[in-house]
Amino acid sequence: MGTCVSGNFLRDYWYVGAWSDEVTDKPLARTLLGDSIVFYRKPDGNVVALEDRCAHRRLPLSMGSVIGETIQCAYHGLVYDPAGRCIKIPGQDGVPAGARVRSYPVVERNQFISVWMGDAAKAEDTAAISFPRLGDPGWAHSKVRLEVGANYLLIIDNLLDLSHVAYVHNSTIGNAPVAENAVVKTTAGNGTVRITREMVNVPVARTYAEFGPYKRLFDRWQLSEYTPPGYFLINNGCAPPNSATGDDSRLHGPGEWGFQVYHCITPQDERHTHQFWAIAYANATIAPAARAEFNRQHHQVIAEDVAIYEAQQCALDTSGDGVSAEDVRSCISIQADAGLLQARRMIARLREGTVI
Ligand code: FES
Ligand SMILES: [Fe+2]
Q1: Residue with CA at minimum distance from ligand 1 atom 1
Q2: Which string of DSSP letters, residue by residue, matches 197-258?
């Protein structure tokens, strides 16, 4: 890992810090927005998130031991409660007032452990984003956390321009019509940016032909909805060829066959990002025996994207003119940039504290 720069991140938000099954009664160290955090699970099942730096000599608490609902530093044995208060100093009576580490508000829902990274007093006013299909027994899913060696904005850009599916993912979910034959609509409002791409009467891409009901031609759509700071819902569906009615409502569902993809993007620092990714589909969509291969193709897709982000970050770092992911200073603007430019403007307004 590079330097831990806290960066120009939006702080007063919930960020996904871990999948539920990553946090146990053993300490888990993770860097979010430049903050070193230790997670652990108490005997009652609730998750604790504390600053991962002992108040005594700054040893990471994640090197210590969870004892009941407390955590003990591995160096001189100071013990902290779930609120971050030091409650025991071995060999002495009493604990100095104010001996503590920061504690972060946490909520756990639908497989996500979300952490409030800003002013704790504001946490209750905002609901953490979750995707209920990840907790729905009628749906199956596959998930992963990726460590991406790139600024989080490059990932957001990628997910707001799905024309790239035609080129980056052309051995699975993509083919040329995704870029060349899509009717693209971009809308921003109610705190989200939404882009729809509808392709009518186009050839079926490999993954769709292999697992879906259409083998030759179909109508296909993608809906990408971004909610700051780093949440994406991507809805994918299809229907018989030439069945579009001009009514966009079908783009929100699977049509005859489809699936959803979720991304939660949490910066580590300016050049590293946690990407929590899941694909979800109704149980009837993919037969149990076919799920391993369907999921594999989508894990390949996300690995292909990571290679793009990391190569872009490397190109920015070596450009020699001080350009960054914040300020890409692209030489060419294309029509497909509309959504990502809307998102960048939204992030800029949020940083200024403007209500969107
Ligand atoms: S550094 Fe943690 S107890 Fe001394
Ligand atoms: Fe992609």
Answers
A1: 57
A2: EEEEEEEPPHHHHHHSS-SSEEEEEEEEEEETTTEEEEEEEEESTT---S-GGGGGS-BTEE
Give the pairing type, strands 35-41 and 47-51: antiparallel
Shortest-distance atom of ligand 1 to CA 76: 3
What is the whole-number distance in angstroms between the Cα of residue 75 and the centre of ligand 1? 5
Structural domains for the chain: 14-125 (2.102.10.10), 132-352 (3.90.380.10)
Separation CA 324–CA 326 (nearest Å)? 5
Q: Residue whose CA is closest, atom 4 of ligand 1?
A: 76
> What is the CA(36)–ligand 1 centre distance, in A?
16
Ligand 1 touching residue 79 (CB < 6 A) = no
Beta bridge partners of 280: 141, 260
Chain segment 236-278, per-residue pLDDT in tens = 999 999 999 988 999 999 999 999 999 999 999 999 999 999 9
| pTM of structure | 0.94
Q: Ligand 1 centre from 113 Cα, in Å?
A: 27
Confidence (pLDDT) at 354: 66
Sheet holding 14-19, edge to edge: 14-19, 112-116, 106-109
